[in-house]
Amino acid sequence: MDLKKLFKNNDAVSPVIGVILMVAITVILAAAIGSSVFGQGTTKPAPQANIGIKAAGIITGVPSVTLEHLGGDPIHFEEGITKVTASLEGAPSFDIIATSLVTMDVGDVTSPLALTNITTAVPGNTVNIKIIDVKTNQLISNKDVRF
């Protein structure tokens, strides 16, 4: 056996190693993408509830509303879970910060919530109130209230 001939005739080694490396890279990429996509798990859906929103009056230009839980899942109003927004007749909306709201179960009615960022409301105005689940960014309730 001629050793010089054995080491000189290695034309097929480079393409074979290249193919093996490409297959290995493809398998590693597929595993990484698959684990990131399938490893996220399922997300919890937003609570489904029927919320009644009624005008409670206007005091010195500041409207207030009451919320009534008419049926469905309990609503948790802690910060970062659920937010309530309001806008006066198409104006930019703002968050309603109601420290009195914690959890609403079926049949619960809130005390009047003052919409303090709306200071120009008059009788006949319409205020849009939205209750939004923060985690899923889904609407729980969207009502127009006429004062």
Short summary of the structure?
This protein has helices at 3-8, 13-38, and strands at 49-59, 62-72, 75-76, 82-88, 94-96, 103-104, 113-114, 126-133, 138-146.
Summary keywords:
single chain, 147 residues, alpha+beta, 3-stranded antiparallel beta sheet, 22% helix
Could you give the topology of this structure?
Elements: H1 3-8, H2 13-38, E1 49-59, E2 62-72, E3 75-76, E4 82-88, E5 94-96, E6 103-104, E7 113-114, E8 126-133, E9 138-146
Antiparallel strand pairs: 1-2, 2-7, 3-6, 4-5, 4-8, 8-9
Examine the coordinates and then state which fold CATH places here, giving the name of the CATH topology of the largest domain: Immunoglobulin-like
Detail the poorly predicted runs: none
Average pLDDT number: 82
How far is the first residue's CA from the last residue's CA?
Answer: 102 Å
The profile of the biggest β sheet is: 4 strands, antiparallel
Question: Measured on Cα atoms, how large is the radius of gyration?
Answer: 31 Å
- The first-level CATH class of the largest domain is given as Mainly Beta
* Number of contiguous helices: 2
Outline the structure in words.
It is a single chain. The model has no long low-confidence stretch (mean pLDDT 82). This protein has two domains: 11-38; 49-146, Immunoglobulin-like, CATH 2.60.40.10. It has two helices and nine strands. It has helices at residues 3-8, 13-38; strands at 49-59, 62-72, 75-76, 82-88, 94-96, 103-104, 113-114, 126-133, 138-146. β4 (82-88) and β5 (94-96) form a beta hairpin. It is an alpha+beta fold. It is 22% helix and 37% strand. The longest helix has 26 residues, at 13-38. It has a four-stranded antiparallel beta sheet with strand order 5-4-8-9, with no helix packed on it.
